[in-house]
Specification:
Length: 188
């Protein structure tokens, strides 16, 4: 990533890692927890009621992680090899800026190129429902929020991943939203 205000912030907190949740989850496994966006891990909504449930869960979990009006960075990425022009245009229309293209090798050993997009905003419950809806309807693969304390919230189709450096806070969110967690031993 080229030097931008976001990349400078990111490197100060996560030096050597790209803002890709699967990499962050591997690196910070003991600080990570996953929540389902619908009962029983259902990935996609079938009706408006289920869409409302997803938005409720996204906002509840993110609202636990971030305080109202707290500054946060929002990060999204698009795969350069796929035709994702419409995704790029949607993000640019929402005032995201590009960090440029980054080449890397994914967990399967495949060579990838992604364009990362970022913007700074302030967390407020409900304020990002339009952005969350892009994720629900698979128009973007997910959206990452991160604050100055290196607390991460990632909303994607099917769930939410959270990384909290504070073990007490991590235990608390696990207990608070236990009914939305995966029953799998792996936590996935």
């Amino acid at each position: 990533m080229r030097s931008t205000p976001f990349s400078q912030f990111w490197n100060s907190k996560f030096s050597g890692l790209l803002p890709l949740m699967y990499l962050l989850r591997e690196e910070r496994r003991d600080q990570w927890v996953r929540f389902y966006s619908l009962p029983e891990g259902k990935r996609y909504p079938s009706n408006e009621h289920e869409e409302d449930e997803i938005l409720k869960r996204y906002n509840s979990i993110a609202g636990f992680v971030f305080n109202d009006n707290e500054p946060v960075w929002l990060v999204a990425n698009t795969n350069v090899h796929r035709s994702e022009t419409r995704h790029l245009l949607k993000l640019l229309a929402m005032n995201f800026k590009s960090t440029g293209v980054k080449s890397y090798t994914d967990a399967d050993g495949d060579k990838c190129k992604s364009r990362f997009f970022y913007k700074q905003d302030h967390w407020k419950s409900g304020a990002f429902n339009d952005l969350f809806s892009l994720t629900i309807h698979e128009e973007i693969s997910g959206i990452l929020f991160v604050n100055q304390k290196a607390q991460l919230f990632y909303a994607y189709d099917g769930g939410m991943d959270v990384i909290l450096p504070d073990a007490t806070q991590l235990d608390h969110i696990k207990r608070q939203f236990e009914q939305w967690r995966s029953p799998l031993l792996s936590g996935l």
